[in-house]
Amino acid sequence: MSTETILILGGAFAGMSAAHWALKHVIPQLPKKGTSYNVTIVNPSKDFYWRIAGPRATASKELMPYDKLFYPIEPAFAYAKDKFTLVQGKATHVDPAGQTVFVETVTGEQKSIPYAALVIATGFTTPSPLFTLDTDRAALEATYDKFHSQLKGAKTVVIGGAGPVGVETAGEIAEVLNGKPGFMASTPKNPKAKITLISAEKKMLPVLRESISKQAEKLLKRLGVDVLYNAKVVSATKASGAEDAKTTVQLSDGNMIEADIYIDATGTRPNTGFLPKEWLDNRNRVSCNTKTLRVEAAGPRVYVVGDCGSYSRGGIMDQNDAIPVAMTNLRTDLIAHLSGTPAGNDRHYTPNAKGGQLVPIGTQKGVGYMNGMALPSIMVWMIKGRDYLVSMLVENQLSGKNYAKEGKWVPQPVVAAGQMVTSSG
């Protein structure tokens, strides 16, 4: 009996979700005669990392214990253990003609994994190691422990980047260092540290409207955070010598700030360096058909989900809309390939125009919007600020409950590769 593999590169949010969808809704509908099927995840860590809570974990492991951040991957697939494999390692390159991915495992072994269908879900890396699980749990815990020891004595902290991660991190660190403000206080009574957030734009949180951004600034000021606008971080140079040596932060407006701690929260970098250049757009994301999420330059039965895809605006809501599309089309294509019959109808991806963004600021406040409406601070706290969605979403993410049902969709005619407009970034 031959074995066909659905290979998923990446074991974070998108990769885990794709694996559950494949096991629940793809494999049960594939031809059974003479063939068995396997879903294989390749991931650097054997643990899933709840990166949403990275800002609070950066500030304090008492506020965000490590056992709320890391969850072993394999037990989440115990219901299908005979059809699931986890390979701990990283993809190094792909042979499209041979439909094979080459992987270096954590032990240094070189493996070649042939695929019947390939899902690229490698996500992104952040400039700061505080927000990315790039190797394994032990390494990231060690990074946090080291940072926490340095943070205790810090008098000046600079955070580059005023998107959600930068704003959340500034608020969490400010509260840990300066304490919670009084009920009516506009600034901390006895601040222990000067914390500066650098925004390259004229406002923070560029996705949110200006009035919400201004409210975020007020909440940060109550915690002792100053915001500098219209300035980019040009360089951050740490003095040689001791671990507690200061960092000089050079800004695009000519100013320099000396900091005990500098945190780079200026954005993300897609984990796509191992892929052929012709698969990527001009931002190094995986270029795909924005309706079907097929990677048409990669040949048959290759798909992309999550933040590394050119279609994506990022975030869990975006991912939840994309997973069923990519995996339904994978199933359609795989059935046609295995049975030798014409492909069925496509499922199409439509971006969620309303969207939403929730940004906790410290452990008590926050700003955000959902479905086009601004949310009161108490609601942001209730939904996300209490524990960064750990109690609300982790179980569903790990178990794949989100995808227990396939969901309704409107079949679309199959369009030949190249006829549909693809994203070029």
UniProtKB/TrEMBL annotation:
Q: Does the keyword Zinc apply?
A: no
Lineage top rank: taxon: Eukaryota
Q: Which residues form the FAD/NAD(P)-binding domain?
A: 6-314
Q: Which GO terms describe its cellular component?
A: cytoplasm
Which Pfam family, an example, fits this chain?
Pyr_redox_2
Q: Does the keyword section mention Oxidoreductase?
A: yes
Keywords associated with the record: FAD, Flavoprotein, Oxidoreductase
* GO terms for MF: electron-transferring-flavoprotein dehydrogenase activity; flavin adenine dinucleotide binding
Signal peptide bounds: none
Please name the SUPFAM superfamilies in this protein's record.
FAD/NAD(P)-binding domain (SSF51905)
Q: What protein family is recorded?
A: Belongs to the FAD-dependent oxidoreductase family.
How is this protein named in the record? FAD/NAD(P)-binding domain-containing protein
> From which organism does this entry originate?
Bimuria novae-zelandiae CBS 107.79
